[in-house]
Description:
binds 2'-monophosphoadenosine-5'-diphosphate, six-stranded parallel beta sheet, alpha/beta, six-stranded mixed beta sheet, Rossmann fold
Amino acid sequence: MSTTIPRYAVFGHPIAHSLSPRLHAVFAAQTGIALEYVAIDATPEAFVDALRDFFAAGGCGANITLPHKAAAFALADGCVATAQRVGVANVLTRLSDGRIEADSNDGAGMLADMCGRCGADPRDRHVLLLGAGGAARAAAFALLDAGVGSLTIANRTTARAQALAGSLAEPGRVGVARWDALEQSRAFDVIVNATSAGVQHAALALPSSLVHAHTIAYDLSYGPAARPFAGWAKRAGCAAASDGLGMLVETAAASFERWHGVRPDIDAALKEISAGNRP
Ligand code: ATR
């Protein structure tokens, strides 16, 4: 009797850099669960059709990365509470009745890595968030939940930063700084890069006045995409800088657990994929 191997995928654009297929293969080997997990490059114009085709052909679940997180949330049939609040999704699951459920575990994954591995507990800290796209939205809600003292959002397009700040509805703790006037801002305890500049091979021109002797820089990107921001953090004098590889493993593990009901060994997987993939 033949059995069908359940099929999963990560959708993004670009997607060639993604370590998600390798990570899910590592988790599958750890847990003895048979699965197929592929990377699918879909432009914004092609994304909705590509995703619908994937699920129509029996796909069981998908991870969603830039720039599709808001579109993924919009096309789902339902969502868990976290995704509802954040308004973006990085996990889609086909339920037994065929409906597609949206989830957002980026924020929890970022915090677990920041606090657990990077020694960057953001509680009571003054945090600068760079970016206002889907990844930044998830990070912003998580940082507020973690108890930051203040959250300043700066984005190349200021109107998007203002819109994100407005939807957070915490004017006492949340502010917006103009991207082209960051040298007039204070220095921050934690600087989180949630832009996709690194993935687009673009450098960020940030002033070193954002940094003090204890500033920790955290990038949601990983691999070569994280090198420019890590380089800037070092030159600017940050006490430490981390890429988002640990966050990726945390979020992938949460997706794996959602789909297969088994929690994989996160630290072992992180060790396995770290070689050659850290800035
Ligand atoms: P994601 O889902 O990963 O957040 P996104 O929604 O496309 O992807 O958002 C990308 C973010 O990176 C945006 O905040 C974008 O700024 P704009 O809103 O001005 O487009 C930011 N970004 C992308 N390239 C950038 C660059 N070269 N310099 C600065 N910010 C950049």
